[in-house]
Specification:
Blueprint (H helix, E strand, L loop, with lengths): L2 H14 L3 H11 E9 L2 E4 H15 L3 E5 L4 E3 L2 E10 L7 E9 L5 E10 L5
Parallel strand pairs: 1-7
Antiparallel strand pairs: 1-2, 3-5, 4-5, 5-6, 6-7
């Protein structure tokens, strides 16, 4: 496993954590305090807002998990990876996208720029 796929595994684990306290701790460990997360549906900053955005996705799609979609790659402090949102019990994805994460010098995420390739409205 390389540093890129390790970061993606940790990132997806944060998105899949359903316990609010554990998710808040995981967000705090993975993201810098002033981190931003931006995609077509969200524009948030900081640990509390990122954790709330994740909780919102979980409330909208209960019983679904994010999993990797294709390999992760990157250069310098930038990581690019695909993901898909699928029922935890199996089945077709309801959303597919890719994110670009920028890390700080300690390897924590300071920015995520997300893109959606498939959304429930267009699925």
């Amino acid at each position: 496993m390389n540093a890129y796929s390790d970061l993606v595994d940790r990132y997806l684990a944060v998105w899949n954590e359903t316990d609010a306290d554990a998710r808040a701790a995981a967000v705090g460990a993975l993201f810098t305090p002033d981190a931003i997360y931006v995609d077509p549906l969200a524009d948030v900053r900081g640990h509390e807002q990122i954790a709330a955005a994740i909780a919102g996705v979980q409330q909208t799609f209960p019983g679904h998990v994010l999993r990797p979609h294709g390999p992760a790659d990157g250069h310098h402090d930038v990581v690019r990876f695909g993901w898909e949102l699928v029922p935890a019990t199996g089945g077709e994805s309801v959303a597919v996208g890719f994110d670009v994460a920028v890390r700080d010098t300690e390897g924590r995420v300071r920015a995520v720029l997300g893109f959606l390739d498939k959304t429930p409205a267009t699925a």
